[in-house]
Description:
Elements: H1 3-19, H2 24-31, H3 35-42, H4 50-59, H5 64-81, H6 87-93, H7 96-102, H8 106-113, H9 124-140
Helix pairs in contact: 1-5, 2-3, 2-4, 6-9
Amino acid sequence: MTNDYKKQLGAAIRERRKFLNLTQSDLAKTAGINRSHLSLIETGEHRPSKRTLSEIARALDTTPEELESTGEYLADAAKTSGGRMYPGLWELLNDPDAITLYQITEEEKRILRTIRLQWNNPSKGFFIQALLDYRNSRKEG
């Protein structure tokens, strides 16, 4: 497991934990690990064992594979956005119901990640509207 991979996985765990409004202590307790160990995993300094990763994923109501995939996605988003993703966009792109409902394609995900605004917290609804506006402009053009 490379350092980049550990950092990506740690970032995915941290983002999922925050999305669920859990503290490190909450997650560590539910996963049955030490909070300081979890902190080191989230920063990419420690590599979780397969068992530990499975327990963390279970506590986050997801799978190890989904955490790995999210880590890759976050790394890709960081490259295209200078390291920052709006929370509303992250929420939209990590909501499987929204992805299915709006049938968001990989191309549309890339386009949404390129949006740059003057304010820091556009909502999930803002990005849904941006997606619909983009689709309407393509129909008209």
